[in-house]
Amino acid sequence: MPDDEIQRYADQHTSSEPPLLAQLNRETHVQMLHARMLSGHAQGRLLSMISHMVRPQRVLELGTFTGYAALCLAEGLAPDGELHTVEFNPELETRIRRYISAAALTERVHLHIGAAADLVPALGGPWDLVFIDADKINNDTYYELVLPQVSTGGFVLIDNVLWGNKVLDSYPVKPSDKDTHAVRAFNNKVQADPRVENVFLPLRDGLLLVRKL
Ligand SMILES: C[S@@+](CC[C@H](N)C(=O)[O-])C[C@H]1O[C@@H](n2cnc3c(N)ncnc32)[C@H](O)[C@@H]1O
């Protein structure tokens, strides 16, 4: 059975997006380049589900884009919990803030504009749930920055770990394709990391679930 048929079936048997997220998803696809970067329906519902399971006090997201995943992750926050999200591109700020406000989350969702590696140390910890979804070549930098700040038993999720299936051995990767080499090396490193347990979910473009021991 083709993968997209399975994906369609999975979408049809996943709870619908809340109306505000459906609007943001549509708006992103109509108005933005690279709209595929947005987590989307099924992955968004998974992020929300994980957040509801963890009931995190503090969530960190690296790579906000239009704010879709941030709003999904915020759905399961503990009653006095907060989410911090970091985005490099200042042109995205107005739209992100508009949606945080429309979701009535201005007190609990904090947007930081700048480079993740510069801003994360000042945000401190502990984090109960981290979503790494920025520039993939730096996955390992972000992982090493945040892992010491993740609570024992806390979770780190890393997106796009299939990297368009280019991580597979059958894909002939060019030496110049630095992103693919970085994603492959990062996935292999986590697999061998005694500090964590991990599950690789082949959902959408691949989501790696990591629990800190
Ligand atoms: C895949 S998109 C994020 C999608 C979003 N998490 C979602 O699921 O809807 C990646 C984002 O990371 C941002 N980004 C790239 N490099 C970054 C950096 N060094 N620090 C922070 N954000 C960065 C990009 O501008 C882009 O908006």
Can you put this structure into words, describing what you see?
The chain is built from eight helices and seven strands. With 213 residues, it is α/β, with parallel strands linked by helices. Strands 3-2-1-4-5-7-6 form a seven-stranded mixed beta sheet, sandwiched between helices. The longest helix has 14 residues, at 41-54. Bound molecules: S-adenosylmethionine (SAM).
Helix and strand arrangement:
Layout (H helix, E strand, L loop, with lengths): L2 H10 L6 H13 L9 H14 L3 E5 L5 H7 L7 E6 L5 H10 L6 E5 L2 H8 L3 E6 L6 H8 L3 E10 L18 H14 L4 E6 L5 E6 L1
Parallel strand pairs: 1-2, 1-4, 2-3, 4-5
Antiparallel strand pairs: 5-7, 6-7
Helix pairs in contact: 3-4, 6-7
The chain binds S-adenosylmethionine.
Keywords: Methyltransferase, S-adenosyl-L-methionine, Transferase
Protein name: O-methyltransferase
InterPro entries: Cation-dep_OMT, SAM-dependent_MTases_sf, SAM_O-MeTrfase
The percentage helix is: 25-40%
SSE pattern, N- to C-terminal: HHHEHEHEHEHEHEE
N- to C-terminal distance: 37 Å
State the major sheet: 7 strands, mixed
The CATH class assignment is Alpha Beta
- Unreliable runs, pLDDT <50, ≥5 residues? none
Instruction: Round the mean pLDDT to the nearest integer and report it.
Output: 96
Gross morphology is globular
Structural classification: alpha/beta
Put simply, the count of helices is 8
CATH-defined architecture: 3-Layer(aba) Sandwich
In the sheet with the most strands, the strands line up as 3-2-1-4-5-7-6
Report strand %: 15-25%
Q: Rounded to an integer, what's the Rg over CA atoms?
A: 17 Å
| Bound ions, cofactors and other small molecules, one mention each | S-adenosylmethionine
Overall domain count? 1
Q: Find the CATH superfamily.
A: Vaccinia Virus protein VP39
Strand count: 7
CATH-defined topology: Rossmann fold
